Amino acid sequence: MKKKLSIVNIAQSLNVSKTTVSFILNGRAQEKRISPELVERVLKYVEEVGYKPNSLAKSLRTGKSNIIGLMVEDISNPFFASIARLIEDRAYKNGYKIIYCSTDNDTLKTRELISMFRDRHVDGYIIAPPEGIEDDINSLLKDGMPVVLFDRHLPDVSTDFVEIDNLFSTYNATKHLIQQGYKNIAFVTFASGQTQMQARLQGYYNALNESGYKPVVQEIVFNQNEDLIMGPLTTFLKKNKNLDAVFFGTNHVGTCGLKVINSLGIKVPSDLALVSFDDYDVFKLFSPPVTAIAQPIEAIADSVITVLLNRLNTSSQHISSQSIILKTDFNIRGSSKP
Q: Model pTM?
């Protein structure tokens, strides 16, 4: 393996000090009154030998890596993938690069990933947090690291966050089903104590309580393996044949639900009306198209990166945390019309 060149090697080859080489490579030659001739000689040699600076060493010297750590639940999920792409584009235009990773809602994995990002000296963090990492994020904040949470927040962590009005969104969608004449409405969701999932569930409860209808809730353990989601869903729908509508709490549950409904031969909406959170192309292609709550992807991404860039580019530790709540769109389609 070819040995990687260092500033020391370059300095020795040119018979100049490593400090002078460092100043030239970091664009401080004029400030340090280094002659243009020497600058040209160093830069020419660097080009000839193909020297590439050690980014980690540079971040230790400058205090900046120009890298942002982005941690989402599942980067393959269309919702998170779309937001990550938009954040990456905006960050790049502002001189930052993004490192992505998926937490899988696993607390231990998230802690290890935060530790990895610390080792890489990232400048800031964007996190869709699982439960149980409050201490880890508070430690980042204590060390002066900017952290922006999105999609959900942690009540015991005082930092910036961006999310949508989950409670009203599910309340409004459930009221729509009730107004269409549906009475036996189930809410199928992942079992979770996360703020966004609890708010969605509460919105559903509020709408049913107002109408005097009995709630029917099925909580499923989150899993990347769809079979472990479709199994409990199949059992639930077979057991509750009196249902006339189902509200899926996430697009992941919703897409699994569509597969189960097809396999059971359930007709939509004559046998069962459908609504899902998180609009998705699959919902538009289903026959009939599925009524869905659409999150404002572009507004979420723009708000998240704007808040973080403001933290990175200003001395803003004294500025109080921002809580940005965005509105959703409710796309009514054939699956919820009698």
A: 0.81
